[in-house]
Amino acid sequence: MEHLTVALGDYPHVAPLLEGRAGVDGYAVKPVEVRPIIAAYRRMIRDLEFDVCELAPVSYLMAREAGVPITAIPVFINRRFHHGDIQCAPGSGVVVPKDLEGRRVGVRAYSVSTGVWGRGVLSEEYGVDLGTITWVIDDDDHVEGRVPANVERVTDGRSLGSLLQTGELAAAFTGNAGTGRAGAPTAGWEAATPAPETNEAYPLFPDSDIIERDHYLRTGIYPLHSVIVVRTELVERDPELPTKLYNAFAESKRLYLDEDPNWAAQPRLAKQARKIGGDPIPYGLESNKASIEALQRFSRDQGLLDGSESAVFADGTYPDC
């Protein structure tokens, strides 16, 4: 039986697959632990180190356009909204999104998915001219070579969090996309210096939960935050592999839900399920059409893709689940 090396984040709904309880027909899964999982993204794109790997969806689109021989299946094991991920510096005077024009905004890397989704919302929903903003980064993109002229790299080793607190940034993305970590994606990278309680940043969208639900109900866009990719060589050898993998991920989620039908062990996903009124991580093409199209549109508009159209997912059988 052929082995598949598989690198995934630490999600309970993929544990049955990694543990062998949800099998890939004709294959034995060999889990490879990479923490943080973001470190695996770069290794997959640059070295094809794994047979199957979780990947940032923007990085996947860029890698595919650059000719990297990887192919995706429509399995999105992590999702999140991003209105609440933009924090403004104390004393910045930023009140509404248009106030960011002409200012400096921090994001880990220009192509990080949170940044692409967030900029897309700022542009399409609020008319923000993204080209007037200087995007300040402190890490490399997984796929290099598509950084626009209005991107500036931090060169003195300071974190985005410290730059936000000193007012050198008007705003920044939070978490792994910005102020919640420091340095390249290696062990311990989340050790960013916390903001002093007396000098708190504040959210650009204070009522983000309400705004996110409204945006979803109006547009159907539910931001993708990871996609499963497989080395194209393996698909060429076994054209049924994408369907086999899809079925295994679907079964893995089903087994998880048998034990935790309300996502109680994953409070963030439980909250998102309530927000959208359904499955917080839907798989398949039709149920994710609006999100896939939005991600491609945002990536093109922000200069990360050249606009050429090509097949995004491997041929296979992908019933929504």
From TrEMBL:
Highest taxon of the lineage: Bacteria
Protein name (Swiss-Prot/TrEMBL): 4,5-dihydroxyphthalate decarboxylase
Native species: Sinomonas humi
Phylogenetic classification of the source organism: Bacteria, Bacillati, Actinomycetota, Actinomycetes, Micrococcales
